[in-house]
Amino acid sequence: MTVTDAAPAAKPASRRVASRAAAVAYRYGLLVVLAVMLVVFALLRPAFATFPNALIVLQSVAVVGVVALGVTVSMTTGGFDLSAGACVGAVVMVTALTMVRFNLTGATAVVAGLLTGLLVAAVNVLLTVVAKVPDLVATLGTLFLFQGLALIVTGGQSVAPGMTVDGAPAPGRYTEGFAWLGGGTIASVPVPVVVFVLLAALVYVLLNHTRWGRALYAIGGNPEAARLAGIRVARYRALAYAVSGLCAAVAGILLSARLGRGDVGAGDPYLLQSVAAALIGFAVLGANRPNALGTVVGALFIGVVINGLTMLNAPYYAQTFVQGALLAGALVTSYTLRRIR
């Protein structure tokens, strides 16, 4: 073999090596980064690698994770629920009003919160499925609608036990049973963490082991082909937004129980974090599509970063920057490395 013959042969070999390296990074890169962060934070702050701190991390991501699971389901059909954060905030205010202002039971507050989530979902379905408005624009409109509605109903004020209503103290308070949802434990595990794990398992089974999940993915891949195959596209898109609304409602109930009051704008931070968790999940094990396991890992990823940086006394604005950098890295892993592979 001459030198000129060896040169072309070396190019395919180098390409194969590059392709294999890209495939490994594509499937396992995010998990490796997560493992490295765990080790680094544990070495820098030994208290990080303790069971109590692990529970703190899990509890901190429980609400974000529940919202992100709903956003994930909405994304399977090619949609994008930007109203999830506003739904969380609206449910917080509704549950607080139910118990504090109207002096009703905690169970009634839970039902009112779930109905609020379904109401948000119904508006999204009306705009996207019936009126054919693009999902991003429609859910953005729903976001502003329910943010404003929560402010109008409460007069822009927080709802807390002992607040003044028409010149007199509010008659109700948060019930013990409802407060347990935010601060109670089951076998030493916080209730929000248990709820997060159970919902994650349910969404995983829905998307991966039922015909409904296969139909949702089919619609997200090609809605016209799904329609020609006999799938009722409108019905499944409505189902996706209903699941997203219910997940946001559950998250709002957990957040309200943890806060013990209805704070204006309580749900605002959860939109970006939940979307980030869902998008980071695209890069887990090379899934490159919305999936429950990836979303759980994405939520834990964000929780570990925030907890570790907090223990290192990093300023809050640095945490936001790091979250953005991680999201960008996950998207590069999910899209750029896939094309290289």
From TrEMBL:
Principal localisation: membrane
Source organism (scientific name): Nonomuraea monospora
Membrane-spanning parts: 25-48, 54-73, 80-100, 106-129, 136-160, 180-207, 238-257, 269-285, 292-310, 316-337
Keywords: Cell inner membrane, Cell membrane, Membrane, Transmembrane, Transmembrane helix, Transport
Xref: InterPro entries: ABC_transp_permease
Superkingdom of source: Bacteria
Protein name: ABC transporter permease
Membrane-topology annotation of the record: Multi-pass membrane protein
Annotated localization: Cell membrane
Xref: PANTHER family: ABC TRANSPORTER PERMEASE PROTEIN YPHD-RELATED (PTHR32196:SF21), ABC TRANSPORTER PERMEASE PROTEIN YPHD-RELATED-RELATED (PTHR32196)
